[in-house]
Write a structure and sequence with these properties.
The protein contains four helices and six strands, in the order H-H-H-E-E-H-E-E-E-E. It has two domains: about 1-35; about 40-150, no CATH class. The N and C termini lie far apart (about 85 Å). It has a six-stranded antiparallel β-sheet with strand order 1-2-6-5-4-3, with helices on one face. With about 150 residues, the chain is α+β, with helices and mostly antiparallel strands.
């Protein structure tokens, strides 16, 4: 006699439901939980660097770096943009130092960038655009506190 004939139809349905549930639960345990993606700072950095007048950035939401406190910590003139902030975004799994993290982001965001200074407390870049050269400096201000200065 086969296994199917020995189980009443209700028991077979219960058995199949339990088997399906166990398979789904096992698959959920095997699939790793998706880690939160690090904040993408490239859109904000690109917006800031390409700005014709840094003074106008205060009113532009696109200029706000993700995870950074309000823009009141930034000073701007027509030719420079200077912000001090605590690094709130998580390291991306490769870099644990906030200065190295923002430096890697700056290097990755721009196709025409020269990284000409790299010390434990300061990183400097020159971003070349079609009509200008922009200086981008990231430096350590205190524990987990950074300063980002962009000037042309």
């Amino acid at each position: 006699m086969s296994f199917d004939r020995r189980l009443p139809s209700l028991s077979r349905l219960s058995f199949m439901a339990a088997l399906l549930f166990a398979t789904a639960a096992n698959a959920a345990q095997i699939t790793p939980a998706k880690q939160a993606e690090p904040a993408d700072v490239c859109p904000a950095l690109s917006h800031i660097v390409s700005s014709a007048d840094f003074k106008k950035l205060r009113d532009e939401p696109a200029a706000k770096l993700p995870g950074v406190d309000p823009i009141e910590d930034c000073r701007a003139s027509s030719h420079s943009y200077d912000c001090t902030f605590r690094a709130h975004w998580e390291a991306d799994g490769f870099v644990n130092d906030p200065l190295e993290e923002i430096g890697a982001d700056i290097a990755a965001c721009f196709p025409n960038v020269v990284h000409d200074l790299n010390t434990p407390t300061r990183q400097h870049f020159i971003v070349k655009t079609a009509d200008r050269r922009v200086s981008v400096t990231a430096s350590v201000q205190g524990q987990n506190e950074l300063r980002l200065r962009i000037a042309r």
